[in-house]
Amino acid sequence: MRKVVLFLIGIAAVTSVAAQHNMPPVFGSEYEGKVFHDSRTRSYLTPLRVVWQSDGSLIKNAEGLLAKGNNGQSELTDKQTCVMKSTDSERPAILLDFGREIQGGLQIVTTIETGRNISIRVRFGESASEAMSEIGGEQGATNDHAMRDFTLQLPWLGVAEIGNSGFRFARIDLLDANTTLSIKEINAIFTYRDIPYLGSFKSNDERLNKIWLTGAYTVHLNMQEYIWDGIKRDRLVWLGDLHPEVMTVNTVFGFNEVIPKSLDLARDITPLPGWMNGMFAYSLWWVIIHRDWYLYQGNLDYLRQQQSYLTQLLDILVTKVDEQGRWNEKDDGFLDWPSSSNPKGVKAGMHALLSMSLQAGSELCSTLGDAERSRRCSETAKKMKQFVPDHNKSKSAAAMLSLADIIPAQNADSEVIAVDGAKNFSTFYGYYMLQAQAKAGNYQGAIDNIRQFWGGMLDMGATTFWEDFNLEWLENAAGIDELVPAGKKDIHADYGAYCYVKLRHSLCHGWASGPTSWLTEHVLGVKPLDAGCKRLQIAPHLGDLEWVEGTFPTPYGVVTISHRKQPDGKVKTTAKAPKGVKLEIKN
Length: 587
Prior knowledge:
The chain is an alpha+beta fold. The chain contains 15 helices and 18 strands. It has helices spanning 2-20, 128-131, 206-222, 239-252, 258-268, 280-297, 300-305, 307-317, 343-367, 371-384, 395-403, 409-417, 430-439, 443-459, 514-523, and strands at 41-45, 49-53, 59-60, 82-85, 93-110, 118-125, 149-154, 159-174, 180-192, 200-203, 477-478, 489-490, 526-528, 535-538, 547-554, 557-565, 571-576, 582-585. The strands form four sheets. Strands 1, 2, 3, 4, 5, 6, 7, 8 and 9 form a nine-stranded antiparallel beta sheet that branches. The protein has a four-stranded antiparallel beta sheet with strand order 10-15-16-17. Strands 13-14-18 form a three-stranded mixed beta sheet. α4 packs across α15 (514-523), α8 (307-317) packs across α9 and α12 (409-417) crosses α13 (430-439). The longest helix is centred in the middle third of the chain and has 25 residues, at 343-367.
């Protein structure tokens, strides 16, 4: 009897441990390895079109790859398969388009007609030209951060799943001579967080609607186990780059674990007095992000977990300001790459960013009950407003000086930001340029810049927003979704600078998502007034739009909002909030 009882207890213990880790019971308590689970899901996508194929006599039924198969299951049949045959001198190849940028890899299913251990080459591309390129050389294609060009062997009558990168296009080359490769399916493996889009934005302008959704999708792709800035390259937690992404998450998804998880990672791997990502500016952004995350999510317990590190960091930051209220410049300054060639502008922008960080720190310390440190940070930020550095016509610097209340917003806009419209805008700091224009009351100018700048990427076939972009690139350029015709510019391979030269350039960068949160905040008009969105201001600025409607996520539920412009030009607003959220409507 005793043996039976012990046996049953043992089974119960094994089952309990397995259930705790969502593991099969066979693992049990004796398993000594570490168990962790992926928060993402996988879906499989069929190609939407064959962009290109080599000599047609070497490839049969390429269009068959566009049909849905049997969920990646190999079969004892060769019906409806794509057949690639090589000769002594010729190797077949095919370029597929999956319709939009994704994060993931490829699933290739072979049939009984395929030989054993056939070698192929796979090339991923965010553009068609990247998928057709060679590593290195004049076009600058790389395997940095994620392998996008490699060879492998396929199984006979089986399935191979390979790749982990950001891409829309995939080229497959048969490498072996005198070989037949029969392919039943080629599916893209889409790896993402299966989360709802709680926020929304719709208006009578489909271009703006598409821009809002593209920014949301760009950030969604980067919400992997941690939040990255790019899914092909820059698959890292960059703290400065993170701020526009956090604002998009607040706007579209509401709370998601990926934000605190990423903020905590940056904190835990950066012992003070070190700077996050090795950059002074990025530790400043960590403070600002926490202020904004708390404003939208209202989690005081989580904020208290930051208090020790936050207060030590703020004590360091106040020492970076001299008696005249100037940033003492002992640490490297960085705003964004396009402003790097304007050192005077960078210096001015950094001065403003430090002031903004200290003001955010003051607000956080006040919330945490640290009145003395809050006062010290506030006084230091105020002292910095007495010194006005020269922005040197930098739109990035002028925007930051405006947002820090160091120069009047109207002057920053009319003298610098609004000059030549979206020319010299930035995918990253463009968000702060838009915010400065809103502060100046130039909502229509900001809307026009969004249409021109971010809309320009859509005109080139973008399904996600890019690491960098200039309006000048549009002239005589082919779209990213086509092979570049003779006489046309390759907008991916012919441009780029700094660390994103030519095809190394990322075409899915979360820092470029600024219009998504901006349109919700200023056009739909939603702005939190109290932590946790307990009180929201609804103040629409429709500009030339006739109507706009949408939703906004809060910790208490989703707010629904609709604005309609009346014949007299006034805006009629209807809005509904969940219990716990108070709305203050201003038209």
